[in-house]
Design brief:
Blueprint lengths: L9 E3 L2 H14 L3 E5 L9 H9 L2 E4 L2 H11 L5 E2 L11 H11 L3 E5 L4 H4 L1 H10 L4 E5 L5 H7 L6 E5 L4 H6 L3 E4 L9 H8 L3 E4 L4 H4 L7 E3 L4 H13 L1 H14 L5 H19 L1
Parallel strand pairs: 1-2, 2-3, 3-4, 5-6, 5-8, 6-7, 8-9, 9-10
Helix pairs in contact: 1-2, 6-11
């Protein structure tokens, strides 16, 4: 509460902050904004419900999150503001080295190694069917050991670990595969759009906000190895389709810039401060 004294507006970006902003509203009338990044089951906690309802504005990264926020607050006024891409340069020497190390065609994935979330086990099953395809899994996480066991004996699955140069790893890929089982938005997809890598992703959570099927990528149902396999094959076999998707993302990416995100938040802040007057 000490940090919020004198604030004209507060913004809670995570669950632990919400009760603090709610209390500041009760004690000093400070308006506050809640942003949620993930879709989570609605917890039936009265204090939590009150905090969501008392917020001056609620922001979700995707339509799926906005629906949850509307349910929590018992209204329909949540604003959708997606994440922004990370403006990053590509190290062409590293891209060349990665392609030389892992081979071609290279199907890439970036995400925490948590298979019930990101679905890397599905990619490993696709890799089992196609020894001629190479799979690069970038990241670390709780299921790293388990996933490496699943991939044991496969010479075409590579675990790179965590990297600070996601852009260059994305640029090395022929296809970016994102077989998540649930996603608030799937912000890594925005980086893949920016780097202009053809995308295959599951139609879950906020992913349909970013990827329109057969317009700027291919969407597949979750937990379907067959559908994931077929979509990757379709992209690899059709350079014209790859070009069409990357061209579409080149036009869309400005909507996910830091400037666009900041402008949307500024409008929310101005509404909140105007409502206080």
């Amino acid at each position: 509460q000490r940090a919020l004294r004198g604030a004209q507006l507060a913004h809670a970006h995570e669950g632990r902050c919400i009760q603090a902003t709610y209390l500041a509203r009760k004690l000093r009338g400070t308006p506050y904004v809640i942003t949620r990044r993930e879709v989570k089951p609605n917890k039936q906690i009265k204090a939590g419900q009150r905090a969501y309802r008392a917020a001056t504005a609620r922001v979700g990264l995707s339509q799926a999150i906005a629906l949850e926020l509307n349910h929590r607050a018992a209204n329909n006024d949540a604003t959708i503001i997606p994440s922004a891409f990370t403006p990053a340069s590509v190290d062409s020497e590293l891209v060349h080295a990665l392609r030389a190390r892992y081979g071609h065609p290279l199907i890439g994935h970036v995400g925490a190694l948590v298979e019930q979330h990101k679905g890397q086990d599905l990619l490993i099953e696709v890799a089992r069917r196609h020894s001629e395809w190479q799979f690069m899994l970038v990241g670390d996480g709780a299921d790293e050991v388990q996933l490496k066991r699943r991939a044991a004996g496969l010479a075409n699955v590579w675990f790179t670990g965590r990297t600070d140069d996601v852009a260059s790893h994305l640029a090395a890929c022929d296809v970016f595969a994102f077989p998540s089982r649930h996603e608030g938005l799937g912000s890594t997809l925005i980086d893949a759009m920016f780097i202009e890598v053809p995308i295959v992703a599951t139609a879950v959570g906020g992913i349909p906000d970013l990827i329109e099927d057969d317009v700027n990528g291919l969407r597949v149902p979750p937990d379907s190895v067959d559908a994931l396999d077929a979509a990757i094959a379709r992209l690899l076999d059709d350079p014209a389709l790859q070009t069409r998707f990357t061209a579409a993302n080149r036009l869309r990416i400005a909507d996910y810039s830091v400037t666009a995100m900041a402008d949307r938040y500024l409008q929310v802040y101005q509404r909140c401060l105007g409502a206080r007057r």
